Amino acid sequence: MPLMTVKEILTPVSSGWAVGAFNVHNLEDVQAVVNAADELEAPVIIMVSESALNYAGADFIRSIVATAAKRVQIPIALQLDHGKSLETVKRSIQAGFTSVMIDGSYLSFEDNVALTRQIVEYAHQHGCSVEGELGKIGGKEDDLLVEDADARFTDPRKVERFILETGIDVLAPAVGTAHGLYKGEARIDFPRLQAIRQATKVPLALHGGSDLSDEIIKEIMRSGVEKINVGTDLKIAITSGIKDYLSNNPEEIEPRKVFGAGRERGTRLVMEKMRLFECVGKASLY
Ligand code: G3H
Ligand code: ZN
Known about the structure:
Elements: H1 6-10, E1 19-23, H2 27-40, E2 44-49, H3 50-56, H4 58-70, E3 76-83, H5 86-95, E4 99-102, H6 109-125, E5 129-134, E6 138-141, E7 144-146, H7 156-166, E8 170-173, E9 178-179, H8 190-199, E10 205-206, H9 214-222, E11 227-230, H10 232-248, H11 255-276
Parallel strand pairs: 1-2, 1-11, 2-3, 3-4, 4-5, 5-8, 6-9, 10-11
Antiparallel strand pairs: 6-7
The protein binds glyceraldehyde-3-phosphate and zinc ion.
């Protein structure tokens, strides 16, 4: 199937299930995600961060994802994750990404609105959907580090104005999840999440979806979140597959075997997440 936008992927989602959005860096990561989604007939969002974009090349990664999508009959979207500037957004859209996230969380409310609105104008002209961030999500995502002290929860009273003034298609709120592994118990502010949900009908994206208990994920889904981002758990699965293979076969030099072991472990992880997100079989809704 041709690539869809994230907005299109999230449109049929109703309370109780969510679409998984997975961060990828290379061919094997893309295959791990698409193989899992194909096996389970699930819609899926593939995300590429700015640093992964610089590592793989926007055109390379887009070609890999588009080729993978052509081979299967499931809905797939390709989104730039945590884009910081119009330049990166343009680069990914020109390469054929269907969606972008603009992360203006390092700016004041007014400047975040101004940058996000500029991105929305450009992206919508090119048929792409846009996710914007309000508040500031903490933790470490690739090269992006937000110290705990700098993280800022989303004010539900600002949600309507942010969405109205920017025209975004998806909102990423900060409600206590963080990028990377949690230092202690994850503390999600569910009343805040519910107040944000009440404030808008625009789909919500939950960042920092790794390292959370199944109970927390279920509560997040019950709170009406449509998109759940997973980066770190997939990185851990893939690299641990590679490490295990090499420790059992220290003389192996065949990349297909080494990276294939990582890909296999990644596929299993994505399938587990999809079962948890209850999006199995939902490809038929599109
Ligand atoms: O934007 C990507 C995500 O929010 C991933 O977060 O690495 O904690 O799963 P994570
Ligand atoms: Zn994120």
